[in-house]
Sequence to fold (341 residues):
Amino acid sequence: MKVALVLAGAEEGGLEKHFVELCNGLSTNGVEVVAIAHEKYANRFLSTVVFQAVNLARGRHNPWALFSLFLALRRSRAQVIHAHAGKAMAMVASLLPFLRQPAVGTVHNVKSTTRYLSRFAGLIAVSDAVVGKVQHPRLQVIHNGIPQPQRPDAANLFALRESLALPPRPLLLSIGRLVSAKGFDVLLDAWQHVSTAATLVIVGDGPERQSLEVQVEALGLTERVRFLGARTDVSALIALADCLIIASRNEGGPYTLPEALLLQCPVLSTRVGMVPDYLPADFLCPTEDVAALADLLQQHLSDLPALQVAQQPVFARAACELTLSAMLAKNTALYQAVLAS
Fold:
């Protein structure tokens, strides 16, 4: 089976990480893969993946971008096309009348315009929340799975803590691009109301970093909050942490969730994306609700050992369902079903 996967953006985030891992994983599992994406990703694929560099970062209605994508899809000679996220799906949908292959699309977030989704032979939703907003006869939830992260040994974790000069008190971690959608400003507002002695470490970079640092100073949180910027040792930081916090306003399938759960790091979160599919209500709060988030943090951070025990069933389920192998098997089964139909 030969599949052409399409990514339209040129960002650095969970969507791009998912796209690369899916392409490489499918290729390792015997699927012929053609990856169509921006040239900046060229060196991230295995040698078994055929990469076609196409700049789709321009507008989705840009004639040259659409023509370039059309040519790439024709060259691919793929049996199935798989477009990722709204922009790529809209572009592929506009070309389907001129192509012979059926297409699958992965819906990460539902936008106001969804009429083009009916042109796809199959749809993947990254969460139950997406399912409730999309109507399609072949719609399947496939959560973002990841390779099993490796947990460093105790000595390496101790060395990491020492190198970061972190105080010997509980460590809370929040990870993501420093943009409005991730809700770091809400998290900081809530953090000032949490009395538990703990350090909040924020990992990531982005356009809001300066404003967030100003907010930390204005709230008097400089001794309780650390910004580490972008890091390549996120798995080690999660293994070191006592809890991961997701405070997003809007989210599809946050990559940090499976990574934390597979490393058996408890998670507290706003009710976004795929998170409620795994975390019971006791570990969730509404989005953009400072008081509710502060209450959630205070309640569980006051007894972190109990939180660890309470999330053991969540860890066990994640070990079965949020792995890369589980995700690859479900994607491959959907491709086969689309071809069979």
Observations:
- The two ends are 15 Å apart (CA to CA).
- The longest strand covers residues 2-7.
